C-alpha cells in the first residue's frame, strides 16, 4: 500500500502512470453525497463506499489500473417502488495509454482503455465506475417485493383513464351490428 499523498494531488488528480509503474495502491472511502450525477439514481445519498485503485503492469508490459468499489447503496425497486439496499462489489481493469497512438491500438481489442497522458480525476473515475456498476432497472431479488404492497399495488386500485373510452367503443360496436 502506498501513501495516498504520493499519487493523489490536493486537487484530487491521480498520477495513474506512476501508480502503475510502481505497482502501488490507493485505498480510501468516499461519501455517496459527493457524487452529483447519482442524485437522481439513488433513493438516498447517505453512506459511503470503500475503494481501491491498484496500479500494475500487465503481462505485455502495459500500465493498468484495477478499480474496485465495495459497499451498499439504497436504490428504488422498479417493481414495488420501495427502497432497498443494493450490495456493490465491482472491479474493473483499465489500460492506461500514454499517447493517442497507444489508445488507438490498445482500444481495438481491449475492454477498457483510457488516455492517461496526464493525471486523472480520482473522484470522476470513481463516479464513472459507480454509474456503470448500478443495475439498469433496480429490483429486489425475486420474491422479496411484498404482494399487494408499495406504489405498484396502489396504482392497480386506481381507475383506469381509458376504461370509459373502451366501454364507449364496445357500445358503438354493439349498436352498429
- SSE order: EHEEEEHEEHHH
The residue fraction in helices comes out at 25-40%
Strand content: 25-35%
What's the number of helices? 5
Which descriptors apply to this entry?
alpha+beta; two-stranded antiparallel ribbon; five-stranded mixed sheet; elongated
Reconstruct the topology from this structure:
Blueprint: E1 13-14, H1 16-22, E2 25-31, E3 48-57, E4 63-76, E5 83-97, H2 100-109, E6 113-115, E7 120-121, H3 122-133, H4 150-157, H5 163-176
Parallel strand pairs: 5-6
Antiparallel strand pairs: 1-7, 2-3, 3-4, 4-5
Tell me what the structure shows:
The chain is of the alpha+beta class and 177 residues long. Helices cover 29% and strands 30% of the residues. The protein has one domain (4-146). The protein is built from 5 helices and 7 strands; from the N terminus they run βαββββαββααα. It is elongated and about 80 Å long. The protein starts with 12 loop residues before the first strand and ends with a helix.
Quick synopsis:
The chain has 177 residues and is an alpha+beta fold. It has five helices and seven strands, in the order βαββββαββααα.
Amino acid at each position: 500500500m502506498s501513501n495516498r499523498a504520493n499519487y493523489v494531488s490536493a486537487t484530487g488528480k491521480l498520477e495513474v502512470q506512476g501508480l502503475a509503474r510502481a505497482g502501488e495502491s490507493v485505498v480510501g472511502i468516499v461519501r455517496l453525497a459527493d457524487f452529483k450525477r447519482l442524485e437522481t439514481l439513488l433513493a438516498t445519498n447517505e453512506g459511503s463506499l470503500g475503494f481501491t485503485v491498484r496500479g500494475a503492469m500487465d503481462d505485455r508490459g502495459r500500465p493498468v489500473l484495477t478499480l474496485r468499489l465495495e459497499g451498499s447503496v439504497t436504490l428504488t425497486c422498479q417493481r414495488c417502488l420501495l427502497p432497498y439496499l443494493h450490495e456493490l462489489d465491482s472491479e474493473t481493469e483499465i489500460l492506461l495509454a500514454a499517447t493517442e497512438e497507444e489508445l488507438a491500438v490498445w482500444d481495438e481489442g481491449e475492454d477498457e482503455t483510457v488516455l492517461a497522458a496526464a493525471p486523472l480525476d480520482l473522484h470522476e473515475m470513481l463516479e464513472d465506475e459507480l454509474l456503470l456498476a448500478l443495475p439498469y432497472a433496480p429490483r429486489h431479488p425475486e420474491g422479496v417485493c411484498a404482494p399487494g404492497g408499495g406504489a405498484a399495488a396502489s396504482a392497480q386500485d386506481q381507475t383506469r383513464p381509458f376504461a370509459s373510452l373502451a366501454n364507449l367503443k364496445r357500445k358503438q360496436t354493439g349498436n352498429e351490428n
